[in-house]
Structures are given as C-alpha cells and as structure tokens.
UniProtKB/TrEMBL annotation:
Has a dual role in the assembly of mitochondrial ATPase. Keywords: Hydrolase, Membrane, Metal-binding, Metalloprotease, Mitochondrion, Mitochondrion inner membrane, Protease. Pfam families: Peptidase_M76. Its main location: mitochondrion. It comes from the Eukaryota. GO terms for molecular function: metal ion binding; metalloendopeptidase activity. This is Mitochondrial inner membrane protease ATP23. It is found in: Mitochondrion inner membrane. InterPro entries: Peptidase_M76_ATP23 (IPR019165). Belongs to the peptidase M76 family. It is a peripheral membrane protein. The keyword Hydrolase applies. GO terms for cellular component: mitochondrial inner membrane. It comes from Paraglomus occultum.
Amino acid sequence: MLNSSAKAEETTTHTSDNAIDRDELKFERWCRSLKYITGLGLTEQERELYNQKRAKELEASQCKKCKKWRDELIRSSPAVIFMLQNIEKAGCKISKKHFACHPCDTTRSGGFSPEFGILLCQNRFLSKKHQEITMVHEMVHLYDHCRFKIDWTNCLHHACSEVRAASLSGDCGWTREIRRGFFTFTKQHQTCVKRRAILSVSQNSHCSAPGIAERTVAEVFESCFRDTQPFDEIY
C-alpha cells in the first residue's frame, strides 16, 4: 500500500503529465491553425481542401454583402426607388426577389434576362455605389423591356437599350471613367456611352459578327441618347 507521500507524488506527476498533454494539444492546434491561415506547410491535398474552403467562405461573404447592399438600396437609394416605381407604372411588378446575387466572370458586373430578372455579380462590386449603378443600369433594361416590348435578338433594339442604360445609370460618371483609364475634355459622357454600349451589344450572340455592334450603336445613338425616360434628364 502506498503511503500518503507516495500518493501525493503520484498525483502530482499525473497532473503534470495532463498539463503537458494539454499544452502539446494546444501547440498542435495552433500549428494546424497557422498552416491553414498562412497556407504554408500544407500537403497538396491539404492545400486543395484549404483553397476550396477559402473559396466557399469568400463566396458566402460576397453573397451576404451583395444581398445586404441590395436590400439597403431598395429601401434608401433615390435612383433605385424611382426606377422601381416607374417599372411598376410600365406594367411590371418587381421586388428584391428579382435581384439575384451570384458570382460572375470578369466581363460583367450585372445582367438582365426577361425570364430570370436581374443578375448582380457579387464578386465584381468595388463598393455599394458600384452596386447601385449596376442595379439602375439593369433596371433601365427592365423598364425598356416592360414599356417598349424589346426584342433582345434585334440588334437595334438591344443597342438602344444599352445606350440608354449606360447614359442614365451613372455608369459613365467622370470618376468611373478616370478609374477605367479614359479621359477626354469634350463629350466624355457620349464617348463612354458609345464604348460601353458597343461592348455590351457585341456580347449578344445575335450581334457578335464583326462590325454589327458598332453599326447598330451608331445608327440608334442620337435618338436613344436623347431619350431619358423615365428620368427628366441624365441621372
């Protein structure tokens, strides 16, 4: 039988061993966390899993922010509220469910489909203002579709709506053009509208043949640029 001194020594040793085990586990967890934070020291399989996890976390974060900004803009943006009201007057009911946040490639920040509504490219927005401009741009397309019964396979129809959307949404604002690397002292807004409209029309599979986008935008530009409906003037 152990005497009291031996029992005390055994207890002390056992407690010390447990403390060492806990410290080792903490250190292992810390090392593992550090590897996943920095990406250093991972095996190829671990790195692939790490990248997949990070991509999913980033996508979820971007989607959450996109939806948050969408809801705030629908509630408080004068331009978005104005477009919502006028789209309804044109015969189309729209709510936040018609604005879908999804990741996109680098060629766009938004899109409009008569079947599915408005696409907001959650991974492309530089700011809340950028998202607001994109929402208004796509809402001009929706307004045109409701009011004028646009045929999106008709390159002239598409070109006219792209001219109006680029002009009225704020997409061709002076500071945005400077960030893109474009600057002129005269007719900068018109130059931007033409360039942006041509770029968008050329992505339409019905208008992608060489020269068609340029010709159709040039043909409709004067009349469509002057048409600021539903705004009284260029926003």
